[in-house]
Specification:
Blueprint lengths: L1 E10 L2 E12 L5 E5 L4 H4 L1 H10 L11 E7 L11 H11 L10 E3 L2 E2 L5 E2 L4 H10 L4 E5 L3 H4 L6 E5 L2 H8 L13 H4 L16 H13 L3 E4 L6 H7 L9 H14 L14 E2 L7 H5 E2 L4 E2 L1 H4 L4 E4 L7 H5 L2 H6 L1 E6 L2 E6 L3 E6 L18 H8 L4 H5 L3 E4 L5 H5 L7 H18 L13 H7 L4 H14 L3 H17 L7 H9 L6
Parallel strand pairs: 3-4, 5-8, 8-9, 10-17, 10-18, 11-14, 14-17
Antiparallel strand pairs: 1-2, 2-4, 6-7, 12-13, 15-16
Helix pairs in contact: 2-3, 8-18, 8-21, 20-22, 21-22
């Protein structure tokens, strides 16, 4: 006899409905076969399923004859142990040890040998799929319930053991629906370890960080060791605008698929600050694997990717940033197929001007030869530098600055200006998928970044004097648009253009 149960497959940041079909044949020797492009974890599920059913007090598959499990559609790759639970239920239905209506139910979960149900990855995507397909009830492991509960209009039933689930399906002991999560309550006031008021001096760098936060522009901090580059980067998180609900869902999807969603959190509500070590491989940065998973640049989506010691990264690794810095996504191609992961992050890079770090220090002598300095700076290619909007010199602070008691502007007041600028951008791009000025394409630049004659003349002079590329030209205009938004100016003025130009790398 055959039976069918619904489950789901997670492919990249999408999910697809899977029909778990189980057919049993009592005659012949015992054989348990799983087809439908399963990976190794799924093929091994036959042992987990058999032990879990036996230890739940039911007739196990190894006491039956031939068992065939088909994961349809057969041409869709299936990955992970989330099919343990639907396979077990399909077998119990096929052998008439249980009876229930499967048409409006979807099941996912990994089984332990004693019948406990373990958590799995990608539950948020499965919950979204269930809602799209009109499935009324989603059965998930107890530890994944909070993650699934943020999706409305579906009923979540969280179960911790196979026996508990069977008692529910038999109407012996019903499991209540898991309570829905109030998304508004999740977005509580954030507490930050760092505050701009605690950073002495560096007003020029703070201003640049404010602009970068308001328009999601990339920024490079260049200066001698100990000048505060890393501290400035870490403190930038305190002035970033708060995540919107839609942005939070985007980020949570990525963390759910990667398996990094904290157990205590059902939703990522803070912008991420990812800081991979300079020895990181290309796969860890951009993502990869036999069945590709998101890398650091996707985990930093809508947040900050901080690359400290920028010039110490392998050049081959940094070159992988070209596509995501330009398009906001990363495409990973493998034999199994091609997947796209979002990577709309703000790059914050910090580097020394030379190996010893003193090349730009007016008071300390540099011990590096000109050739060493050239080789050191050449580790970062021109195309990568061209994609960075703001290039900031962070000088070593003198005693007078370090010892002064003057009150610095706090992060909260800077964030107010940043969020006000983001609200202006939200209204501007209301009819598009664009979130910040840095994402504008040619059409939006032409529409929203009109320059007056004085501004056109400034850009003309900058183009001829600094030999700017076409990309740099338009990036300056986008930065100027952000500066205008911070001043709540409808038009881009010459002073906005002038400030944006000064942040470009002058050796271009």
């Amino acid at each position: 006899m055959s039976a069918k149960v619904f489950s789901a497959a997670v492919i990249g940041l999408k999910s697809a409905l899977v029909e778990v079909e189980v057919d049993t044949l009592s005659a012949g020797m015992h054989h348990f076969n799983i087809v439908g492009l399963p990976d190794t974890a799924i093929k091994e599920s036959q042992d987990r399923v058999s032990s879990a059913i036996k230890n739940s007090g039911l007739i196990a598959p190894h006491r039956c004859g031939r068992i065939t499990v088909n994961l349809a559609p057969a041409d869709l790759p299936k990955v992970g142990p989330l099919y343990d639970l639907p396979i077990a239920l399909g077998f119990l239905l096929a052998t008439k040890q249980i009876a229930f209506d499967h048409t409006d139910k979807l099941f996912i979960g990994e089984l332990s040998l004693d019948g406990r149900i373990r958590p799995v990855k990608g539950v948020l995507l499965v919950a979204i799929l269930a809602k799209e397909k009109g499935i009324k009830t989603l059965f998930v492991p107890l530890e994944n319930a909070k993650e699934a509960s943020i999706i409305s209009d579906i009923n979540i039933i969280a179960v911790s053991t196979l026996k508990e689930l069977l008692n529910h399906l038999k109407n012996i002991a019903l499991v209540p629906f898991f309570p829905k999560t109030d998304l508004e309550k999740l977005f509580q006031e954030e507490n930050h370890l760092f505050d701009m008021k605690n950073i002495k001096g560096q007003e020029h760098a703070k201003r640049a960080l404010e602009i970068a936060s308001a328009g999601a522009h990339n920024i490079l901090l260049n200066g001698p060791p100990g000048s505060g580059k890393t501290l400035l980067a870490k403190t930038m998180t305190s002035i970033l605008p708060r995540l919107t609900v839609s942005e939070a869902l985007e980020v949570t999807k990525i963390f759910s698929v990667a398996g990094y969603l904290p157990k205590e959190n059902s939703l990522i509500t803070k912008r991420q600050f990812r800081s991979p070590h300079h020895s990181a491989s290309a796969a860890s940065l951009v993502g990869g694997g036999t069945f590709p998973r998101p890398g650091e640049i996707s985990l930093a989506h809508r947040g900050i990717l901080f690359l400290d010691e920028f010039s110490e990264f392998s050049r081959a690794v940094l070159e992988n940033l070209r596509q995501p810095l330009e398009n906001g996504l990363i495409t990973i191609s493998r034999a199994q197929g091609t997947l796209e992961f979002p990577a709309r992050f703000t790059l914050v890079a910090a580097m020394n001007p030379c190996p010893c770090g003193n090349a730009t220090d007016p008071e300390k002598a540099c011990s590096c030869s000109p050739g060493n300095i050239i080789r050191y700076q050449a580790k970062i290619s021109g195309p990568i530098l061209d994609r960075i909007d703001l290039h900031i010199e962070v000088p070593r602070l003198k005693f007078e600055k370090l010892s002064e008691d003057s009150q610095q502007e706090c992060s909260d007041s800077i964030r107010e200006r940043v969020e006000k600028a983001r609200r202006i951008q939200k209204e501007r791009f209301l009819d598009s998928k664009i979130v910040a000025n840095s994402e504008m394409e040619s059409e939006q630049i032409k529409k929203y970044c009109q320059l007056d004659p004085a501004g056109v003349e400034l850009m003309k002079n900058a183009l001829s004097r600094f030999y700017l590329s076409a990309r740099a030209y338009f990036r300056i205009i986008k930065v100027a648009r952000t500066i205008a938004d911070l001043e709540e100016s409808e038009n881009i003025k010459p002073n906005h253009i002038a400030e944006a130009i000064q942040y470009r790398f002058k050796s271009e």
